[in-house]
């Protein structure tokens, strides 16, 4: 008898060819459809992520321009009027 919490060690394999032969054709069509849909969803997610990175890059470029302009203004000598 196997005790509660016991660890069993070993290996198991599944013959994929035999497994697929025994599947219902409608189930296989559903699996293909799900895989195709998952691939399309992943592609859409990657496109969205790419757009986010492009936006962040544009924001950083614009902020870099502003930072350089502000740095140039701060480095100019200023006249102080003493009364």
Provide structural commentary.
By secondary structure, the chain is an all-alpha fold. The relative contact order is 0.04. The protein is elongated, with a radius of gyration of 31 Å. The chain contains 2 helices and no strands. It has helices at residues 16-21, 25-75.
Based on the model shown, name its key terms.
elongated, 2 helices, mainly alpha, single chain, about 0% strand, about 80 residues
Please describe the topology of this protein:
Elements: H1 16-21, H2 25-75
Q: What is the N-to-C succession of helices and strands? A: HH
β-strand percent reads under 5%
Radius of gyration over C-alpha positions, nearest whole angstrom = 31 Å
Q: Fraction of residues in helices? A: 55-70%
On the 0 to 100 scale, the average pLDDT is 86
Distance between the ends = 99 Å
Provide the low-confidence segments as ranges.
Answer: none
Shape verdict? elongated
Tally of DSSP β-strands: 0
> Which class best fits the helix and strand makeup?
mainly alpha
Largest sheet: none
Number of helices: 2
Briefly summarize what is shown.
This protein has 83 residues and is an all-alpha fold.
């Amino acid at each position: 008898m196997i005790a509660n919490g016991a660890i069993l060690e070993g290996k198991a394999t599944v013959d994929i060819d035999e497994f697929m032969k025994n599947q219902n054709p409608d189930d296989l069509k559903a699996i293909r459809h799900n895989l195709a849909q998952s691939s399309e969803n992943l592609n859409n997610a990657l496109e969205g992520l790419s757009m986010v990175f492009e936006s962040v890059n544009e924001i950083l470029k614009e902020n870099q321009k502003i930072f350089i302009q502000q740095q140039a203004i701060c480095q100019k000598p200023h006249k102080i009027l003493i009364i």
